[in-house]
Amino acid sequence: MSINRLREQLKNLRMPGAGVKLDLRLSEARCNSLEHGDFLELLLQDELLHRAGNKIRSALKAAGFRNLKPLADFDWQFNPNLERKLFYELAGGEFIRQAQNILMVGPSGTGKTCLAQAIGFEAIKLGFTVIYRSIFDIVSHLQRFNALSDRNPEFERYLKADLLIIDDMGLKQLPEKAGELLFEIIFRRHELKSTIMTSNRPLDDWGKLIGDVPTAGAILDRFLQQARLIPFKGKTGRPHFGRQGQAGPTANDALLDAAAAARLDHAEGGSL
């Protein structure tokens, strides 16, 4: 069979990853006298990595991360009060499997947003669905679609995500009925899905921020039943990272390839 014919068949089978690497694998097979089975295994591995990479890209786009950087690039010297071991433990995803929540509380610029998103990125690599939004984006989005009127698909997305990251609680006072929307999300996800929330204000201030003290109390009561509270201390600043680049839809290929390989390894080790 000619190479062109083989490439055409790979195209018909919708295996673009294998098609891109075909010439390389053929050359490798000739140089190393690979058995047919070894050659086919390498070609199929190329296709699987390509598909895993596409899933990562799609999941990152759906997540909506903002200036995401991977956990491995976080500069822990930026805030020595942070316990590195804890965040790598969270990156393993067990709290998501247990439908537990995380509440990160502390001053702005101490690393909450960066680390929450980094954990979200690791969750995507493990095969979980993740949504990252600021509290203001969630509230304005749901108010615009009148989400609580019926079974609204926009509202359902927030309920079904394996991990929902709600950022910037306390940055400013929320609009009217924000408490009602937030309570419904927390209530419906309780003991079913995991949520990470970040806040730069003490929990006692949530009633003022929401404009409804009883609702704020109900939200915290339900959320904290299955939550780990992580205090953030230190001087206000901005985290630094060891390498440049953004792990989002425009991430460099090396980072995405590593993420795809990690996701593929996890899938081969067993489904979630």
UniProtKB/TrEMBL annotation:
Q: Which UniProt keywords apply?
A: ATP-binding, Nucleotide-binding
For this protein, the record's Gene3D superfamilies field holds: P-loop containing nucleotide triphosphate hydrolases
- Pfam families from the xrefs? IstB_IS21
Under the heading InterPro entries, the entry gives: DNAC/IstB-like, IstB, IstB_ATP-bd, P-loop_NTPase
Superkingdom of this protein's organism = Bacteria
Biological process, per Gene Ontology: DNA replication
Q: Where is the IstB-like ATP-binding domain?
A: 9-238
Named from the GO MF annotations, one term is: ATP binding
State the protein's name: DNA replication protein DnaC
Organism of this sequence: Oligosphaera ethanolica
Native organism taxonomy? Bacteria, Pseudomonadati, Lentisphaerota, Oligosphaeria, Oligosphaerales
